[in-house]
Structure formats: structure tokens, C-alpha cells
Amino acid sequence: MPVQVNGEVLSLRRVGAYHAMTVVAPGVAEIAKPGQFVTVAVGGPDTSMMMRRPFSIYQIRERGVYGGTVEFIFSIEGRGTAWLAARQAHEPIDIVGPLGKAFSLPREPATCVLVGGGYGTAPLFPLADALRARGCRIDFVMGASKEERLFGALDAKRISATLSVTTEDGSVGHRGRVSDVLPDVLSSSKADVVYACGPMGMLRAVSRIADAAGIACQIAVEELMACGVGVCMTCVLPVVGDDGVTRMVRSCVDGPVFHGDRVRFDDIGTIPADALGAPQPIVVKPQPRSSLKPTGQQASAEVTR
Q: Which pTM value belongs to this model?
């Protein structure tokens, strides 16, 4: 079960275009698993920003000088993250976690390809640690729009058998997107499973490539989450269940990790007509022409006019 902790900012540093915040959060760090996330209250005690902000967990340390810590990565996107980026070491911070469902790990050693876009690469690092502890081989593929928006390339190179980097502007690595190089990586590595986190467009492409290759794929979606605990229903998306039925599920509690081939990417933002509980269209039957004829009084009134 997640816990709410009055934590403390241990450090805040810049990493390229991003910010990395480490928070002392005893009770959260001890039970957090790769793929889960935390939510943070922003704005201070007198703020009008009532909703928490969700962040994927980048590093988990169960023990430390000050207690267990979690680290997360973010970029400044609005007032909430701007406030967060202005915090100082030792300031208090209200954090809830761990939330959501984690990645599933192979029971036996396997070859795992990890695909990240932008700072969506962050939650793949604790996953890589867990996979390596099970004797798995790691191959990394990461991409971004430009070099400064890549995250963790040096660490990925250190822990993986191979690293493939793409940037859309060609500033480093292959010019293009991760989907351009992924098929070759899957083939050359003889991958058993793909794990991915990043923008929805990237996840759609990765899921389809893995499905075409007959390789299992788990994705951590980056849907907007207002509450993080399944109450507000702002992060729903259509997912096909084990029984073949499409349901509108909540990313924050039913995910954020899903099987890539189960997410109906083309229908995100809508409620498919065949989804369980979807509103059914109202069918208005046309009336017979005889019933549309005016009555005697109505006809007289028409003539008078």
C-alpha cells in the first residue's frame, strides 16, 4: 500500500534539460518497485494548485544516512514543476508513493531490450538493475528530439551490452527515432522481451514493432494524472483484457505498466463503441407520414395565416 510521507529534499541537480530531485522518503523507498511512481504536493501550504504532480521513480535507495530515498526526473512544464525546481536542500516536501503497477520481471534469465524516449528513460534504470540481478542481458535504445533531451546515456552504456541512440535533429547518434533502429536491435540481440517508457507516439511504434516480431512488450504510459489514486478518471485509456473485452482503465492504478499489444492506441482520447459500458447511441425511429399530417384545427390555422 502507498504511504504519505512528510519528506525532505536531499538534493536537486540539473541533468541536461532536466532536473533530478532526491527526496528522503522512508516507507516509500523500502517498498517501491521499477515502473511505479510518486506524486508530490506542489506550491506550498497556501497554494491554489491543489492537484499533486506524478513522477516516475528513477532511483531507489532503501537505506542511507538520512533514511530511504527516491529520486525522480522532471522538466519545467508549468507552475507546479517550476515551484519544484526552486526548492532547496532540506526543505520539507509532501510525497505519496509508491503508486501504480510495476514492470513484471522474467522468471528466468532473458535478453531484454529497454527503450526510452526523453526522460522516459528514467524508470528503466531501476528496472535494468532488477533484470541484471536476475542474470538478464540488457540492450538499451534511447531517443530524444536533441542531445540535451537525452537522459542517462552514459549510465546506459555502462550497464548494457549495446546502446543505440537516436535524435531527431541528428545532434548525436542516429538521425531519426527509436523506431528506426529498434527492428535491427531486436533481431541482432535475439530479444525475448521489450520494455519501454516515453511519449505515447513512441510507445505505439515500439508496441507494433515488438508485436510484428512476436516479442512480448511491456510499456509504462505517460498519461496525465490529476489524482494518482484512481478517483478523478482523467487518465483512462482503452485496454483489451485477458477475456478479449475492451475496458476503459485508469493508468494510475491499473497501470502505468501495460502489455503493449493490449493498448488501443488509435482510440486513446475516445471511448470505443465496443468498450464495456460505452454509451450507446440513441436511435430515433422515423414517424409514419400519416402521423405527421396536421389536425383539422391546425389546418384551419394554417389557411387563416
A: 0.89
